[in-house]
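Job type: complex structure
Entries:
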Amino acid sequence: MLALGSFIFALSFALYAVYGGSVSNDSPRPQQQIQISKTASSKEALGTTPTKNGLYEVATPQHLKNNKKDIIEQTITIASGDSLSTVLSSMGISQQDVYRVANARDANSELLRIQPGQTLNVKAEFPEGRLKELTYIQSKLKRTLYERQQDGQFSFVVQLTKPETKQIYKEVTITNSIFVDGIKAGIPQSVLIQLTQIFAWDIDFATDIRKGDSFSLLYEENELEGEVLGTGNIIAANFINIGRSFQTIRYDDGDEFNYYTPDGLSMRKAFIRSPVDFTRISSKFNPNRLHPIFKTSQPHQGVDYAAKSGTPVKAAGAGKVKYVGELKGYGNTIIIEHGQGYSTLYAHLQGFKKGLQANRYIEQGDLIGFVGQTGWATGPHLHFEFRINGIHKDPMTVEIPHDSPMSKDSLKKYLPYARSVMTELSQHYSDAFGQKNEVISKRHATTF
Ligand SMILES: [Zn+2]
């Protein structure tokens, strides 16, 4: 790896042989040809022999030789496997100075965590390999300058460049999938992931997305001198899914940034709708179903998610584990109590998360077990039940409570902000999106 580093070093070598240091600039350069008069004394004194053209080759006087100080500037791109020590040594920096700069005064020790692709710019005096200055270019936005002080130690200063943050508007109609159509529209994948996370409590992205669904959003993009350096957060979005419109706004209510509905309700809810990702529903909640094994009328009290054996199962909400173990036809089963009369049940599991026990507290989204087909099951699937005060509810349609609401004071400040952001978002709508949104808004008589 060092060999590769040295190779890159050779390629990106920027050499400025500056004559300076302790020798003043008007001193004669060593090894230069100077014209001298042909007198024996001067010839003897300088120990030279004349060349054909009457010039004399002059050897560097000893006192100049000892003080020869070339400051050389080199730039190197860190390669995989490089360490600060190997890189600086390959540039000829003395071991003592490698140690000193690595332990720079008030060290943030970032220099010890150099990453491939980052750059070091080094100014050093040779032949001693005496480090004068080192610039560690971490990114386009951050560099740290280490400078040698009179006592030989290094001080450093961090230089940050602030990118310009722009708002980007995009609108997508889904014909394939959120990710395929979103990326085609030029939306970075990280933004699309954010989008699915924000709406995860309202939309089951594994099963709810239909051709013709559409979304619009405003998100941040960071630029430096016209170059896109990355994307920031989604500022606001409107997702039209199966004739329903879900709108969200990012807001700092004093503690941290969160996403809220235009009315100020948290997007986060007490439960996620489906405890498994990337599945299809193989059997819906149906109070009058004929049982597939017993062929008798037996209500289906939950939702079945067909998924491969071993697919992770997540806790739908935070709560206390009530039961872990076998439960007749349910096979391996977990029951979680969430408080206020809510409970969820996960059946036919292949196995449980190691260490999961009754009375343990868990968070929403925690891994609890794996899809299987234990108990009375015709194939691998998760049977998921949702109960309120012991009564079975359809997990797909049950009204799920929002997470902790905003304080009244925050809400007062939030509402005018939300209105202005949604107005801004809507000003970008295409005619088609605007009309679609209007039809839904009228039907639901919402503000926006
Ligand atoms: Zn079932």
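Summary: The chain has three domains: 2-22+69-160, 163-269+403-448, 280-393. The CA atoms of residues 244 and 440 lie 7 Å apart.
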